[in-house]
Write a structure and sequence with these properties.
heterodimer; A: MetI-like fold; 2 domains; flat; B: alpha/beta; Rossmann fold; 6-stranded mixed sheet; 4-stranded antiparallel sheet; 10 strands; 30% helix; transmembrane helix (chain A); transport (chain A)
């Protein structure tokens, strides 16, 4: 009985390990080769500089996938990679081919609103200085604003979770002002602060501070009272109870707050850049849109997506380190 | 306070004397008060192992909280070696029914909690390792609480208490949630630790046999509000045998006091 089941599993395992390597590697290679061929086979409808580079790049990737499929059995890591990613690579190659045909070759999608992939490449090769400066400006806003908001929110949350008097004074303010979207402060912020940059920092910090405060507070409030009993009988003083008992016990909540705050911070960052600050990815996108250079808008959007996703990854890595004592963390 | 002497694990600490003088306690519940303890008088001599038996919810655990100094009594005084108890102190350590380990700390860091809270982490590093060795968990020093079994977690809680060299160890049903085999093992370990360290022990338990197996003296409480119903010595040498006829006899008497003699 046992042997029979084991054999069956072995066979299935083997089939999964061998056949699909070649199959998915080959389909991925075919899809990307099609993308390269589509770029070369017909003349462009418009005037794009990077069509050749796109074709060469796609062809190079197609070759690489084919090679991986071929050596996959002797190089298990490469084989595992192509087996795992093969379906995705195939699908993305197909989408890229269709995109190429629909925009640059046959004009099924209206220009200039839907530029072809080579137009995006052109942005990265020609306009990387301005785009890079925008990324740095956005990062600076996000990091400074988020850090200020997170620190203030954390301290406020600990204070009102721990001290009844702090709660008495802060809680009504928090209830009244907290749920207000940070962007509602926009008209006031931009004249109350000396620069649009400091106004944006204020808005981002505000958007960050509220969720961090509330979640830290609830984390501190829900600490098992027995932890305090234990620490007190062992000779702990009040500061020890706050810093070594309440705060570490509340950390899982704090990270939920930070995660929510990061989303709020992204959204305020974009609004601030679209309406006020004269630098950053949001500003870059709006400026490009004014010139009807939609390729720049899409290229900036891709970078923005990477930036947001990257920030969340950093936060989750930090959480995994700080909360390594917990079981069953969600993997990002 | 325990003497600041830093000794090896085998050093015998002098147990504290505990005097509970006409202590009454009540809880405030929405306008009404619920009396829990009614004029408790109890004197524990240094080095005694006293077990408190009583029906569920009679206020035994509340008395332990008062002894630990976690709450002040509504009336009456508690004294440790003649000095009134005004708050928690590392000379009186509680081991709760739940191990209540801090899940974000490793086993060793949990044991180090007392020395760290008292600002003596550096000078007591060796003692922390000794305490871990004493409960046989040296190999688990770097494990986190969620990786431990119930018995192991309670051993860590014991080590966390013992590293402070308490002169009074307060045990609030420490073995109540363990499976019966682990419980029997740890009862033996508790006796061995108590004999080796010489602290005074105050144990609350529901388990009559456990009380008789461990303690030098058993105090039986009445229903809430608790009064002392009986107070008798267990005059048997250690190590004790669970089948000892004298122990069986005492068990019958204790169960009778708790109103459970019919089934025996």
């Amino acid at each position: 009985m046992t042997t029979f089941v084991a054999t069956q599993i072995d066979t299935a395992e083997q089939a999964r390990r061998e056949a699909p390597i070649a199959l998915w590697g080959v389909t991925a290679a075919l899809a990307w080769a099609a993308a390269a061929a589509a770029a070369e086979a017909w003349p462009d409808l418009g005037d794009w500089l990077e069509t050749r580079r796109f074709a060469v790049g796609a062809a190079a990737l197609a070759t690489a996938f084919l090679a991986l499929a071929a050596v996959g059995r002797r190089w298990p890591r490469g084989g595992a990679w192509i087996r795992d990613r093969g379906p995705w690579l195939t699908a993305s190659g197909v989408v890229l081919t269709l995109w190429q045909l629909a925009s640059a070759k046959f004009g099924w999608l209206p220009l200039p609103f839907f530029p072809p992939p080579q137009a995006l490449i052109e942005v990265y090769t020609e306009d990387y200085v301005a785009l890079g400066a925008s990324v740095l400006a956005s990062m600076k806003l996000l990091v400074v604003g988020f850090a200020i908001g997170a620190v203030l929110g954390f301290v406020t949350g600990v204070a009102i979770g721990w001290s009844r008097r702090a709660g008495y004074w802060v809680h009504p303010v928090l209830r009244f002002v907290g749920p207000l979207p940070a962007t509602a402060w926009l008209p006031i912020a931009f004249f109350a602060f000396p620069t649009s940059w400091s106004a944006s920092i204020f808005l981002i910090a505000l958007a960050t501070g509220f969720p961090v405060t509330v979640l830290t507070w609830s984390g501190i409030a829900s600490v098992n009272a027995r932890y305090y009993d234990v620490a007190r009988t062992l000779g702990a003083r009040p500061w020890f109870l706050v810093l070594r008992v309440a705060v570490p016990a509340a950390m899982p909540h704090v990270f939920v707050g930070l995660f929510m705050a990061l989303g709020a911070a992204f959204s305020v960052l974009m609004v601030a850049e679209l309406v006020g600050v004269k630098a950053g990815i949001g500003f870059y996108m709006q400026w490009a849109q004014g010139w009807a250079s939609y390729a720049n808008v899409y290229a900036a959007l891709v970078v923005l997506a990477l930036l947001c996703s990257g920030s969340i990854t950093v936060l989750f890595r930090l959480r995994d380190r700080v909360l390594s004592w917990q079981k069953g963390l969600v993997q990002w | 306070m325990v003497a600041l002497a830093i000794g090896d694990a085998a050093q015998v600490t002098a147990g504290a004397a505990l005097d509970i003088e006409t202590v009454s306690h009540a809880f405030d519940l929405d306008e009404t008060t619920l009396p829990v303890l009614n004029r408790i008088d109890l004197s524990v001599r240094p080095g005694e192992f006293v077990a408190l038996l009583g029906p569920s919810g009679c206020g035994k655990s509340t008395l332990l909280r008062l002894v630990a100094g976690l709450e002040p009594p509504t009336r009456g005084t508690l004294r440790e070696d003649g000095r009134p108890v005004t708050g928690p102190d590392p000379s009186r350590i509680v081991v709760f029914q739940d191990p209540t380990l801090f899940p974000w700390r490793t086993v060793r860091d949990n044991v180090a909690l007392g020395p760290q809270a008292q600002g003596r982490l550096r000078s007591q590093a060796g003692r922390i390792d000794e305490a871990l060795a004493l409960v046989g968990l040296t190999q688990f020093a770097k494990a986190y609480p969620h990786q431990l079994s119930g018995g192991m977690a309670q051993r860590v809680a014991l080590a966390r208490a013992l590293v402070n060299d308490p002169s009074l160890l307060i045990l609030d049903e420490p073995l109540g949630k363990l499976d019966s085999l682990t419980r029997l093992t740890m009862q033996g370990e508790l006796v061995a630790l108590w004999q080796r360290k010489g602290f005074t022990a105050l144990l609350v338990t529901h388990d009559v046999e456990e009380a008789l197996f461990l303690a030098t003296r058993v105090v039986v409480f009445s229903d809430r509000p608790a009064t002392v119903k009986a107070d008798f010595p267990v005059d048997l040498p250690y190590p004790r045998h669970r089948g000892d006829p004298r122990l069986v006899e005492l068990r019958r008497e204790s169960l009778a006091l708790l109103g459970l003699d019919v089934s025996w």
